[in-house]
Amino acid sequence: MNITVRPVHDTEWDAAARAYTAALPHDPISGHELRKRDEEQRAWGYVAGVMVAVDAGGEVVGSASYFQDPGAYHPQRFTLEFAVVPQAQGQGAGAALWNALDLCLCKAGAQSVRVLAREDHPVAPGFLTRRGFVGDKRYFTSSLNVTTFDDAPYKALDDRLALLGVRILSLADLREARVPDLSRRLHALMSDVRGDVPRAEPATPLSFRVFEEAVLGDPGLLPDAYLVAGHGDTLIGQTVLFRSGASPDLLTGLTGVSRDWRGKGVATALKVAAIRAARTLGAALIRTDNASDNAPMLAVNDRLGFVRDPASVSFMLRY
């Protein structure tokens, strides 16, 4: 193929997002979401960019983003999202994209870069391995059919937690109640529960600005499905559902519980409440992803009936 690789044009955000979503439908993104993330990265002072691969007819057949993870920040470590539409794979578009990205990363002084690839993908693992990437950490994407989920077996759990004084409220409920310093308290809760979540790179503190803009300001955030567990005035756990503009499926953000409350069923109750919220919102499917060594959360999802896709592997290239 005759491929040109260049930075995305202002008129191409939707096309770049469609190319990515076509190749990776389990990880959908809209043009608005892609552009917002890129703009936020730059506003936070991070290095980021979005490239597109365009064929001779002017069609975007691939897209790639490089950026720095605010929750695992290092000035020389990058995350890469990289995809070519299925009909153009194996014809040189991916190689052209990578060559351009490699130059950008070298200029940015990259020490390393990570990218996820499904282990059953016909092209991606070999493509990355040939370019020096090494796979290490594995993740599972799982999905649950909301329409067939039976929540009756979990009513006893709800009652038991209620006797302990635990209640689950949505962001919409908390806003309606005008809870003081709500955003700060939610930020503190997320900062507390995310520290023990297994990840490919060490966690770093998530600033309040990033939390406010990237989480509370996410256009796909669903206030009725951002759920927190509370005990008295203390917030002890959370789970969050988002909806991308590129898919009707709901996507799970961070689910976590404070250390003192783990092992008591709070995470399960939060997930069940999220499934009920998804049903009320008319969603048919919830997607989530977890590191393969996050045994407690994987066990919760398995009990609830989430069905795992083939694993995705985090591939890393050191410069």
TrEMBL record:
Keywords: Acyltransferase, Transferase. GO terms for molecular function: acyltransferase activity, transferring groups other than amino-acyl groups. The keyword Protease does not apply. This is Putative N-acetyltransferase. Signal peptide: none annotated. The keyword Transferase applies. It comes from the Bacteria. It holds the Pfam family Acetyltransf_1.
